[in-house]
Write a structure and sequence with these properties.
The N and C termini lie far apart (46 Å). This protein has 7 helices and 6 strands. By secondary structure, the protein is α+β, with helices and mostly antiparallel strands.
């Protein structure tokens, strides 16, 4: 199981656990009513909504929208290739929604019901170590500016090398760095601007392109360290 697959499974499970916790709280809480929630229930709802968003994002990171997978679940007559249309809204996005010709739909398919194991796409094997090195260099530069951007570099369900990161956090840190007027912020901004380029080269299996990003990040890290030592 790759880290992307494990993350998708874990976040889907956390949604299910959150649903069970909310139901239990509602049954036991004397303040909650059909038309009114106590502060604790409201906080649990907000946490649940955040879990749902993470579950959907992680599922579609591991098996992207529009990709072709092999279904081998309980419905034997439906076995075969399907397209990933979206995640299942009926279960708070803990499973996939699959479609194929003639309007056929499987609205709730767990990752465990997909048998197609990732087959490395051309260039993915060579790209993976280079992309992980780039992520380490990037994290080192960001740490100098007290910035953290969670990143996972691994093989997704289609056998492609993928760089996954929270887009909301990325957009926020870009905005903060652009508005700051310090040397540290300038290095952080330069590093952050390499992320989309790195993600694209990683997904395309472009090992040479990723290596070029690594070289840029190494030079940037050394420059940032030199600037810090002069102070």
């Amino acid at each position: 199981m790759t880290s992307l697959q494990a993350l998708a499974v874990q976040t889907a499970a956390s949604v299910r656990l959150g649903i069970a916790d909310r139901h239990k709280h509602r049954e036991e809480c004397g303040m909650c009513r059909p038309d009114q929630e106590c502060p604790r229930a409201a906080a649990m709802l907000a946490d649940h909504q955040a879990r749902v968003q993470r579950s959907r994002s992680n599922l579609l990171t591991y098996v992207p929208h529009g990709s072709v997978i092999t279904y081998a679940g309980a419905l034997t007559r439906m076995h075969g290739e399907w397209w990933v249309n979206d995640t299942c809204g009926d279960c708070d996005h803990t499973a996939l929604r699959l479609v194929r010709g003639r309007g056929m739909t499987l609205s709730h398919v767990l990752l465990s019901e997909i048998t197609s194991a990732p087959i490395l796409q051309p260039g993915a094997g060579a790209t993976l170590p280079a992309a992980r090195e780039a992520a380490r260099e990037l994290a080192a530069i960001l740490a100098m500016g007290n910035v953290a951007l969670p990143m996972i570099v691994d093989i997704n369900g289609l056998g492609a090398c993928t760089l996954a990161y929270p887009r909301g956090t990325y957009d926020h840190e870009i905005s903060v760095a652009e508005s700051a007027n310090t040397a540290e912020a300038s290095y952080v901004l330069a590093a952050l601007r390499t992320v989309p380029v790195l993600a694209s080269a990683t997904t395309n299996g472009n090992a040479a392109g990723v290596s070029g990003v690594v070289e840029r990040l190494v030079k940037l890290r050394k420059a940032a360290m030199a600037t810090r030592m002069k102070r």
